[in-house]
């Protein structure tokens, strides 16, 4: 069996020059590569046989292309630029502002950086470690959310930061986190105020945060097909198997160059978006799709899945679940469903299907079961809120997923009813006292939370059950860590309505 390498090439913010991409594809094609993928963080991925790698390496070096081999030490900077103009309207955040920020990044970040417009949910807002969210009212100022590496701790910065200092402050924050890793890296007790005080020692252009950032509810727009916006068109291309043939992509690059389209966009949904297609060139793009027999009208419920990069097991599970959800005619609008098959991976999702083995022998996994986990308030920008169902065999998984989806819609309905009820004057009621005040218990391995207020009804633990009352045999519902591996932490602060 021939050994293969996985090559990763970052395109900052998912912005790709057709000329640069064409050169990379030509080099890859010469090394026998026929297909490539786009990753969850808007990067380019492809596999190459080991004996063909030296020739490819030489060509990539000649092109001046930075890449990683079987590694992700330098995660790509993720941005909402692909949604700009197409899904985002009435915002000060333009193409030029994105490019200015990327140009000012003079280092290779080792932490995940997200740069997002607050007026969209097409790209994840808080899945990075350093998350910049454009202020809705204050032009050229940014809210900042820090998610400390390998923790569930999110800290909202006390000040908004000016555009020209976004890159420099990101570099400063990363430097401090790695220099003082004992405080800020893999530490569930990481103190955001302490980090803020250290960063403030440098001069940055800032202004006080007058109110917490208002983050949008998740709503995934349909991102496929040839669609009109303003006086132009945009084309979204999704591939069911995630594979884009090199010949097809080379044809796209050449047509972009021919029609003077200067940028391509890779999305977090492993798809490609081409903007600024003119009316006179629209038929050229239809002809290209026809020539390569590329379908661009998949069902909406197929487009809202997130699967780990380069994961055939996850793709097979996705297609298995899709077939059965379609047979049930199950509505999935407003939900992002993630598939996780690896122990150390993160997947953006409202509802996560997690595969894990019951037995591991010498690195071999046997007898897989599936857990269904839900994000806090089903918000995919949050971490796991609760385990809905655990230890499911494959044949029961679809039904458990369907029930979790129904719970999401029940919660949506309850929220709507609560808003309507709040609009009607009522008698003053005694506030409910939480069983656990402002404290919850976090697993030190996977950061899952045990909240005494909610318990774990799916595992037979009633609401209000105190952590001390749990049996000594209690284990983490996500990673099976023992009870003693939990520690008490402060309940995540509520940032906006419907988020906690």
List the helices and strands and how they pair.
Blueprint: E1 4-9, E2 15-16, H1 18-30, E3 35-38, E4 44-49, H2 53-63, E5 68-69, E6 78-79, H3 95-104, E7 113-116, E8 130-134, E9 141-147, E10 154-156, E11 159-162, H4 166-179, H5 181-184, H6 192-199, E12 206-208, E13 225-229, E14 232-237, E15 244-245, H7 246-258, E16 264-266, E17 272-277, H8 282-291, H9 300-303, E18 305-307, H10 312-327, E19 337-340, E20 351-361, E21 364-375, E22 384-392, H11 394-422, E23 439-443, E24 449-450, E25 486-490
Parallel strand pairs: 6-7, 7-8, 18-19, 19-20
Antiparallel strand pairs: 1-4, 1-5, 2-16, 3-4, 3-15, 8-9, 9-10, 9-11, 11-12, 13-14, 14-17, 16-17, 20-21, 21-22, 23-24, 23-25
Helix pairs in contact: 1-2, 1-7
3D structure, described in words:
- This protein has 500 residues and is of the alpha+beta class.
- Among the domains are: 88-208, no CATH class; 301-422, Sulfite Reductase Hemoprotein, domain 1 (2-Layer Sandwich); 439-490, Rubrerythrin, domain 2.
- It is 26% helix and 24% strand.
- Strands 6, 7, 8, 9, 10, 11 and 12 form a seven-stranded mixed β-sheet that branches.
- The longest helix is centred in the C-terminal third of the chain and has 29 residues, at 394-422.
- The chain is globular.
